Amino acid sequence: MRILINETNLNIHETGSGSPTLVFMHYFGGSGLEWQSVMNQLSDRYRCIAIDLPGHGDSDESVPGYAVDTVAEMVAALAETLQTGPFVLIGHSMSGKIAMAVAAGTPDRPAPPNLKALVLVSPSPPVPEPIPDTEREKLLNGYGSLPEARKRLKNITAKPISDSVQNQIVADDLRTARSAWDAWLLHGSRETISERMADITIPIHIIVGSDDRALPPDVQPKLVLPYLRTATLDLLNGAGHLLPWEVPDELAAFIAKKVTA
Question: Which among 45, 51, 112 is positioned nearest to 80, based on CA atoms?
Answer without folding.
Answer: 112
